[in-house]
């Protein structure tokens, strides 16, 4: 069973940020400049 607490994907993360539902965002150090900004 999954707890449903992990979100992945740019559009999902952006929507969750707008809703104020995120406590932590992890971006890999090798992510492209477009992803990191």
Output the radius of gyration: 11 Å
Please state the overall shape, judged from the principal axes of the Cα atoms: globular
For the sheet with most strands, the description reads:
none
Alpha carbon gap, first and last residue: 33 Å
SSE-based structural type:
mainly alpha
Which stretches are poorly predicted, pLDDT < 50 over at least 5 residues? none
Number of strands: 0
The helix content, as a percent range, equals 25-40%
Total helical elements? 2
Overall number of structural domains: 1
Query: What is the N-to-C succession of helices and strands?
Result: HH
Protein name: Ribosomal protein L7Ae family protein
Organism: Staphylococcus aureus
Keywords: Ribonucleoprotein, Ribosomal protein
């Amino acid at each position: 069973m999954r707890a449903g607490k992990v979100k992945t994907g740019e559009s999902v993360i952006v929507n969750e940020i707008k809703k104020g539902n995120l406590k932590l965002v992890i971006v890999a150090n090798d992510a492209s400049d477009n992803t990191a900004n």
